[in-house]
Amino acid sequence: MLSGTSLRYRADITAGALKVPESRIVADLLIRGIDDQAWRDSILDRNVLQARSLATAERLARLIRGRLELMRPDLWRLIRDGTGLEATHAVLVAAVKHSALLGDFLDLVVREQYRLFAKALNKRLWDEFLEGCRSRDPEMPRWPDSTIRRLRSSVFQSLAQAGYIENTRSMKLQTVHIATPVIQYLQDHDEQYVLRCIQVAP
């Protein structure tokens, strides 16, 4: 189970895919250790995430902070200061740690498609995966179709941004080599679930 909730599967990933540029900004705020007032000033008054509305800024900041606070400051520094690839993969592992929907989809579905030498992912795999999720977590909410579509969009966008698929149109599978400093972080902190989820490509 994920910390802070009895539910394994939650819909909060609908707030965004990997959001790497925004995650770099939030990582910087966390590294600097700012207080609550300075956080509100940065997110709401100065709109450092360049969100379209205050509600979007709050929702996005809550999602990213929730992801990053599950990880240690050395991963925050990889996100803030790393190369584009390092930052992307560092955000990915935080997202996987935060969302079992993303993690289990990689581990259970994407891994199997690589094993079968599939050329591309099929969107119907998402619906089949959600049915399987209910057997793993009978308390999983019954989300409306609009939420399910947003969840699918966020997960597939995350896969594209991390390099597992070419893009969300072709859905063509690609080999992914996770950045070495990110693998090292996960090994150093015994993040076995996250390691398994991201190491699905041949």
For the record, the count of structural domains works out to: 1
Can you tell me the CATH topology?
Answer: fold of a uncharacterized protein from magnetospirillum magneticum
**Overall mean pLDDT:** 93
| Shape, principal axes of CA atoms | globular
Distance between termini?
28 Å
Backbone structural class: mainly alpha
Proportion in helices? 55-70%
Q: Which consecutive residue ranges, at least 5 long each, have pLDDT under 50? A: 1-5
Rg value:
17 Å
CATH superfamily: uncharacterized protein from magnetospirillum magneticum domain
The profile of the biggest β sheet is: none
The portion of residues forming beta strands comes to under 5%
- The CATH architecture assignment turns out to be Orthogonal Bundle
Structure description:
The chain is mostly helical. It has helices spanning 20-32, 36-45, 54-68, 73-81, 84-98, 100-115, 124-136, 145-162, 180-188, 192-198. It has a single domain (17-198), classed as Orthogonal Bundle (fold of a uncharacterized protein from magnetospirillum magneticum), CATH 1.10.3540. The protein is built from 10 helices and no strands. Helix 1 (20-32) packs across helix 3, helix 5 (84-98) crosses helix 6 and helix 5 packs across helix 10. It is globular and about 50 Å long. Residues 1-5 have low confidence and may be disordered.
